Each structure stands twice: as C-alpha cells, then as structure tokens.
Amino acid sequence: MHTILAFDLGATSARGIVYRLDNCTLQEIEVYRFTGYQLVNQEQGEIRWDIDMIMNEIRTIIRMASTTYFIESIGFDSWGCDFGLINGAGELIRTPLCYQTMLQEKNLHYGMKLPDQFRQRTGIANASINTSSQLLYLKNNDPESLQEAEHLLMIPDLIHYLLTGSILTESSIASTSQLFDIKQQQWALDLIAEMDIPTKLFSTIVLPYTRVGTVKTGEHHIPIHSVMEHDTASAIYALPTNDHTSFFLSSGTWSVLGQKAESGLILRHPLEANYSYEQAGDGKILKLQNMLGMWFIEEALREVNQTKSISIQEVQRLLENEPPIGFFFDSQDDRFLSKGQFGSALRTYGKQHNLPLLDSTARLFLAIYQNLAFKYAATFADLIGENSKPIYLFGGGSKSDFLNQLTADLTQCTIAVCYSESSALGNALAQFLALKAIRTREELVLLVTASHPPTYFIPRRNQAYEQAYQCYQESLKELSAKNI
Fold first, then answer.
1. Domain that holds residue 318
2. Quick one: pLDDT at residue 273?
3. What is the predicted pLDDT for the residue at 270?
4. Residue 436: exposed, middle, or buried by beta-carbon count in 10 A (0-12, 13-18, 19+)?
5. 146, 85 contact by CB (below 8 A)
6. Does residue 447 lie in a domain region?
C-alpha cells in the first residue's frame, strides 16, 4: 500500500486528494476543496492571488490527511504563467499578480512588445498573460518589486519554497513563461537579459519525480516531489494511451487543445505562429492553443443568477432539443475578455452585427456552447487533418454531454471523456513513479484504464450544426476581411 497527497490548484478552485495504491487498485479520497483566493484591488485595477489563504488551506489539508493516513509524498500542480518574487531576506514581495489582471483592456498590449525571437526560442506565442508580459507590466507599474527581488518562483514552486525553503523550478511550469528555451530545456537567459530583467531571479530547472524537500507534520517529515507542475501537462500525463502521438482537449476555465508527441517529431518542423509549444514533463512536447473556455459559461451563470437561480445541470437540459442559433462570434476576441462584462459585451456585439437576440437563458448558453464547439472543430481540423484518432477530453467542462457530443459531431472524431480530475490524477501518478510504486508507462495506462475507463462520444452526422459551422467559418472570414 502506498499513500500520497495530490494538490491541484485551478484558477477558480483547488483541492487536496489522497490517493492510495494497493495491488493495482487505486482509491481516491478528497480531503476538501476551497475557493475564493483572488484579491481584487479596484483602485489599482489589479487582481492578485491570496497566497496566505492558499497556504493556510494547504497546511490544514496536510494536517487532516496525515492524521488519518501515513502520507509518503506530496505534490502540487497549478495553472501556468503566474509567479511570486522573493527578496534577499527570504520574504515574499507582495502577493502574486494574477494573469487576469493582464486580460484587462488597458494591459493587453504588454503581450505584443516581445520580438519574434522570443516565440521561436521559447515556443510560446506572444500573449499578455505570459510571465514575460507580467514582468514588463511590473517594470512599468511596480519597479521596486523587481529591484528588491532575488528569486522568481512559479506558483507550485513558490508553494514548495513556503513549505520547505527549496528554490527550484520544474520544467513543465517553467515552459509556460515564454522565458524557457524549448530546445535547450533551460532558461533563455540572453532573452531575459534583453528585457532588462535580472537573470539571477531564475532558479535551477528540475524534472518531475525530483524530491524537493520535506514538510513536518507531527513527528513525520513528509517528502515533497516535483510532478508535472503545469496542470495541463499533469492531466495529459494521466491519459489512458500509449500512442506516440495523441490529441487532447482540456476543458476548464481555460480550454487547451493540442497534440502530445515526441520532441523530435515536433521540433524538426518550423514552429507555427498560432500554437504554443510546452514541455510535457516526460520528455515529450505539447503543441497547443490556449483559449478561454468554461470561463464564458461561468460568467454567464454569474450574470443569470443575479436575477434567477439556475444550475449548470438545468442549463444542459435546456439545450437538449435546441436547434443551432445564427449567432456567430470569435470566442477569443479581446472585446469579450473583461471579467463581469461578458454578457453585455456579447449582446452589444450582436446588435452591431444584426445577430439574433439572446433573449432567453437557453439562447445565451447555446450561443456560447456552439461557438466554443466551432472553435474546437476549426483547431482540430488544422491539428489532426484527415486522421481519425480519438480526442481525449478532460476537466470540469467534460461534464457537458451537449458540448462533448457536438464536438464529436463537428470534428468527426471520437471524444474519449476521461476522469474529470485528471490533473490531480496525473500529479498522483508522477508521485507513485517517484516512489517506484509504478515503474513503467504501460503499468500507468493499465491502472488509469481500470480505475477510470473513458466514456466515448461517437461522431454522428448532424446536418443542422454542420451547416451552422460553415456559416460560422464564413462569418469569421468576412469579419477578418473587414478587420472588425
């Protein structure tokens, strides 16, 4: 019997889950989950992470879990890009900036200043949420923090530091920064110096399965191991496949669509400008696109629930027999990205372009879901081509049967819906490998398949939505031609 504790931190909620492995049987016990760790400063127009709350919750979960179980290892994964700065006295300088600050209209331009060599060397497309862009933001808005800083640590590594004092950075989370050389697999220190950012901030890169320190609880010192610390890489690690190339869709607050393949297979071709290339953590490369996904559903639910109470399950029932709506928009258009203003921005856009009214709850959510499915289909058409490989889908958004089936129909690929807590599962599996409780990828796949067999959505011919998808593509081409 081996018992570990996996922490999976998402942008809107976090959880600590105990995993127990006994004779190829996997048991999971959720300790609890917590939310509400964003701090909004209206005056400065910033959103930051309440790291004190996060650490208090983490320590509480560790105490609770270790009271009941003999925990052999702990691991952490989280969203990418965000970081904390540590000064010479070993103290955290302010609470970490949240990437959502960078999605505000006044900050979007920070992602457009970096030359093309950053994208070519790091594999990461220019975007305002990147670590590189956040550093430019701090140079302009909080230069004192950078002047005082001695170390920069990505969120999971910051947690390691606050628990153990270790100053290390795991490769998959480093690769989200746009400051990590994808071929050399080290920090691109020359590019960092070009930005006039001190290179001393960037710590030693380690791979998953590395023991980074211990945390004391009672009389027990529990080892902490690095895992695939980027939550996307962690979830993909848990996919029930041994294929050399696989396709995936992470459906959470962010949707991440892409391909996992051997690094040589991907990097021998020129890097494509509309994709990012990240470390999978296990020697492979993730070729992917990041786009906001369930965030739109969360924002719409927040708006609707101001006037009436409706659950996501009720929304799904409303959509069951709805025909497609002729309301087409690019879900990644900057005008829709402001928190708390999505619904009004969407309706204003509809009026400007003479689109059907979103005059009911069903029509509002249908417009969001169908345009997400259209975006997914267009991306996978480029990635997969004529292949008929399955698409492995995971994350909270995988609970929408409507979206799953529509994605299968539009891509004409089987959608294999995996465990919704795949990031936590991948985290746990990496720890079991670190403990040598699992020794091979083949063992891992057998364990995942036995404990969490996928649910399959088989593609159908859906003429109404296929026609709507064609109209969507024509509509976006027309808007692009007009530069609207």
1. 241-417+454-484
2. 82
3. 82
4. exposed
5. yes
6. no
Total domains, the chain: 2
Does 306 fall in a domain? yes
pLDDT digits 0-9 by tens, 36-55: 999 998 888 899 999 999 99
Residue 186 lies in a domain: yes
Terminal-to-terminal C-alpha distance of the chain: 60
The domain boundary, picked from 167, 192, 225, lies at 225
**Residue 250: CA atoms inside 13 Å, Cβ hemisphere, count?**
30
According to the model, what pLDDT value does residue 320 have?
84
Domain shared by 217 and 315, yes or no: no
CA quadruple 163, 10, 210, 186: dihedral, nearest 10: -110
Q: Are residues 469 and 396 in the same domain?
A: yes
* DSSP-assigned states of every residue in 379-437: HHHHHHTT----EEEESGGGG-HHHHHHHHHHHTS-EEE--TTHHHHHHHHHHHHHTTS
Both 266 and 171 in a single domain? no
Amino acid, res. 118: F
If asked whether residues 209 and 103 sit together in one domain, one would say yes
Instruction: Answer whether 248's CB lies under 8 Å from 415's CB.
Output: no
Which of 169, 199, 225 corresponds to the end of one domain?
A: 225
Q: Is residue 444 part of a domain?
A: no
376 and 411 assigned to the same domain: yes
Q: Are residues 246 and 382 in the same domain?
A: yes
How wide is the angle at C-alpha 421 spanned by C-alphas 333 and 287, nearest 5°? 50
- 442: phi > 0 → left, psi -120 to 50 → alpha, else beta; which? alpha
Q: Give the bridge partners for 246, in sequence order.
A: 260
| Contacts for 353 with CB less than 8 Å, ≥ 6 apart | none
CA distance 285 to 290: 15
Cα–Cα nearest to 340, from 95, 33, 40, 9: 40
**Domain match, 179 and 282 both:** no
Write the CATH number for 122: 3.30.420.40
pLDDT at 185: 93
CA dist 211 → 66, 162, 172, 224 (Å): 19, 15, 16, 6
Summarised one tens digit per residue, pLDDT across range 128-159 is 999 999 999 999 999 999 999 999 999 999 99
Claim to verify: residue 305 and residue 361 sit in the same structural domain: yes
Residues of the chain with pLDDT under 50: none
The DSSP code sequence of 169-209 is EEHHHHTTSS-EETTTTEE-HHHHHHTT--GGGB--EE-TT
Taking the C-alpha atoms of residue 278 and residue 445, their distance in angstroms, rounded to an integer, is: 22
pTM of the model: 0.90
Task: Identify the pLDDT of residue 344.
Answer: 82
CA–CA separation, 380 vs 247, rounded Å?
9
- Give the contacts of 384 (CB within 8 A, at least 6 positions apart): 247, 391, 411, 413
CB 256 within 8 A of CB 400: no
